Structure formats: C-alpha cells, structure tokens
Amino acid sequence: GGIGELTARLPPTTPVGPSSNRRRQSKEVSAKPRLAVVAPFPVFPPMSSAEQRIFYLYQAVLSEFDVDLITITGPDRPAGEFQLGPGYQEIRIAKSRMHLQKEAELNRTAGMPVEDIGMIIDVGETPEYADVLRKCLDDADVVCVIHPYMFPAVAHAWCGPVLYDAHDVESDVKRRILSDSPAQEMLLKVVEQVERACVNRSEVILCRTIQEKARLAELYGAPLNRIHVVPAGYAPDRVSFVDLRGRSARIAAEHVPPIALFLGEPHILDAKTAAHLVACAKELPDIQFVVAGAV
Fold it and tell me: How far apart are CA 79 and CA 90, in angstroms?
C-alpha cells in the first residue's frame, strides 16, 4: 500500500541518474547561470508566507541568476508556464487524477492533510512531472530544493550542486502537528529519512533562525559552516514601518479601540486558531479582533 511505498522509495544519500549539469543546445543560453528552484506547491501569486518567501527571495537573486521555479499544483490553481519577470518564470505541472486520488487516500489514512509527505511517492503518479523536471534540470547550473519532499524526484535526475532551502525543521514540525493515527510513526520516519538525505546531499542549507540552524546540525550532523540563516523579512519599498511609539500616538489620537491582530496562513492549525478567536471576540466586545492573511 501507499504507506509501505513511502520508505521503499526513499533516495540514497548519493543521487542516482546521469549528470544534468549541461544546457540543451536547442535553447538560447543566457550569460547568467540558471538556478532551478523545486517546490512542492505553486508560488505565484504568493499568498502564504512560504510562497512569499520563495517568490521574493529568488526574485532578489535575479541580478546573478536566471531562475526557474518548478512547481506542482492541484485543481485550485492553473498549470502552465508563467513569466514572473525578466529571467524569472514558474513552470507549474498539474497533478494527475490518479495522483489526486492517492493523495486523498493518504490524507484519510493520516487523519489530516499530508500532501507534502505524499509527494515522496505520489508525484510518480504524475508522469509529466518527471519529464518536465528532467528537462528543466538539463538547463540548470544549480538546483534548490524547497522543503525536503521533492528531493527524491530531484535526486533521481540531478548530480550537480544542491541548495536546500529548509524553511523549518520538518521532522520537528510534523511531530507537533501529525494526527494520532496508525500511520503517524511511519510518516514521521519517512519525513526524518528524507530530510536527512536532503541535508546530507546539499552543499548549502538555508534556514530562518539560529535555532533551526542548531537543530539541523544536531539532528543530521550537518557542519555549521554549511548552514546559513536567512531570516524572514519584509519589503521596505512597499511596507512602511511604524514603531511602537508612533503606533501608540496614532491610536490615542484616533481613539481606536484595542486591536488584537492575528496573521494567519492557509493551514489547518491557523484555521482552528481563527475559529477560536471568533469565539473570544464574542466575550471581549471592547477589543477589536482582526484576522488577516490567507487563513
């Protein structure tokens, strides 16, 4: 069954397959090296914090690289090739019907959405993905893996330099949120094994905090000099910052009631939190509750 297949298809620490560090002669070659960024979800338009981090972080390297975002999508977003700017595009593949069915089966077994973990094997149910990925990697000089879940697919098509953009420590995150189900321990084992393989294979690892850096080194023995902290940020040219004193003065001048702000993600835990805040708001009428973001 699907759960058993998860461990059977884990990649070796050393990738297999032919070296893909070459350019196809049929394409016009840019003077800049090409970075292929492989993510397990669509990126544009960026709504969640993960999508925004990917979109703006790799937009920021366009002076040094041409960037291809290679993503995969369900029926909620269209597939296709999207030009995001000069030298910047997203190549998005639609999951097949069988892929979506397998995904739904694994979600039922796990008792919650686990499409990201299922990518380890379910992406094979979308044959177009492997074809497009290999063609894109043929044009790449460096490959970046976002989260560890697409690493098995990359490892079977690429032998060149790998950058791992971790976003978080996935094994720790999944241990906190996975439902108590017969599949829980197997899923946790799979996440840990794939994350370990991805960390061990990558020449450079990015994470968001010094705590995540220490944890990745502790769990997987990665040398600290290979792990680099790239904190979450904001775009100062688009967002004006007001310090606490300025906000307090503005609130006092405008007689604004106390505000409780929750910035949410399109995630099951954030949806539950937002529902809880709605209940709190009924009992705290003197506080204005604001739920913002893509929750």
Answer: 10
Phi, psi of 151 (to 5 degrees): -60, -40
Instruction: Compute the distance between CA of residue 197 and CA of residue 195 in angstroms, rounded to an integer.
Output: 5
Q: How does 184-217 read in b/e, with b if 16+ C-beta sit within 10 Å?
A: eebbeebbbbbbbbbbebbeebbbbeeebbebbb
Q: What is the DSSP string of 40-83?
A: SS--SS--SHHHHHHHHHHHTTTTT-EEEEEEEE-TTS--EEEE
Distance between CA atoms of residues 160 and 38, nearest Å: 14
CB 48 within 8 A of CB 294: yes
Which amino acid would we find at residue 200?
A: N
Q: Which whole-number Å values give the CA distances from 87 to 23, 62, 225, 244, in the listed order?
A: 16, 7, 30, 40
235 or 176: which carries more pLDDT confidence? 176
Q: H helices of the chain, where? A: 2-8, 49-59, 97-110, 115-122, 127-138, 151-155, 170-177, 184-201, 210-220, 244-254, 268-283
User: Do 150 and 78 touch, CB atoms closer than 8 A?
Assistant: no
pLDDT single digits (tens) 193-203:
999 999 999 99
Q: What was the pLDDT predicted at 222? A: 92
pLDDT class of 255 with cuts at 50, 70, 90: confident
Can you give the pLDDT at residue 29? 60
> Residue for token digits 């321990």?
185
More confident residue, 79 or 18: 79
